Amino acid sequence: MTKAFQSSGDLIADRRVGYAKLLAEGGEFMAAADLMEQALDLVPDWPPGWDLLGGYYEKSGETARAIAAWRRLEALDDDGQFGAQLRLAAYGAASASDGTAVSYVEALFDQYAARFESALLQNLKYQVPALLDIMLAEAMAGLGIEHFAEALDLGCGTGLMGERLRQKVSFLEGIDLSAAMIAETARKGIYDRLGKAELVASLGGRPPQTDLITAADVFIYCGALPPVLEAVVPALKPGGLLAFSLEAHDGEEAVFLRPSLRYAHGVAATRLALIAAGLDVVRFETATLRQDRGAPITGMLIVARKPMAVNPLLTIEDELVGTSLEGCAV
Length: 330
Known about the structure:
The protein is α/β, with parallel strands linked by helices. It has two domains: about 10-95, Tetratricopeptide repeat domain (Serine Threonine Protein Phosphatase 5, Tetratricopeptide repeat, Alpha Horseshoe); about 120-305, Rossmann fold. Helices cover about 45% and strands about 20% of the residues. The protein has 14 helices and nine strands. Strands 1, 2, 3, 4, 5, 6, 7, 8 and 9 form a nine-stranded mixed beta sheet that branches. Helix 2 runs antiparallel to helix 3 and helix 3 packs antiparallel against helix 4.
């Protein structure tokens, strides 16, 4: 059973939770929180209840009470699927994680899978796969690339990016943390191979033979960008492309965690991270990625290239030719 709904084991508590959810759907978050407090008096060690309570207080503007609920949740949530530590970090009440909160992201998308596409495309006006696809096509034209032999779609989800890649790629692989998302996309028959795996772990030891790696709204759950690029770049073949998106912010911080529990990256810091990873920037644009609670989310869309391998003997020979020419009068 996912975290979307788990019975507390107490009928009266469950009824109060049901009423609380109805109140919350009507925007009465403080009244919902009051009912959740009553329910938790009956089942004080029930993690989903503390998750709901913290969320209701957050939406009521009662940040201190929300933090108190999340601290209790953190103590009860041994595997971290409710993301209590992330929620605390987003409000400065804990340190942000150095990498992906695997259990939280897996649980989030397991419960979200069935309504993922309708929510993103209809409600949130999600643009990333379409925008990345346009940028990738332009990059291919500029680089003289007609087709990719092998591509890897990180965080493939239900295949929204894969659908656009399919005609550009001979062999398309997708990986995702969520088994439910993998099951949804498997029904479409888009990918030649699908696997459930964590991003960095899946890339470890992979030979440098991939022509294209994509990550549409994936690195926003991964925290700092340099460790991600350290895992991705070795899997690319020389001349291979990396196309991905990030949520953006204009501050000096390289990355910070938003209350949405997604990471926002600094534009300047992102450019520096690409250079440090040895990548050449082919395309770098900012754009509106989606809507979130009625507000546009600005992000970065990036296509970068791993440099072609250099023949050291050719380089030495070129240097010798250059030296001999410098000594000649023309």
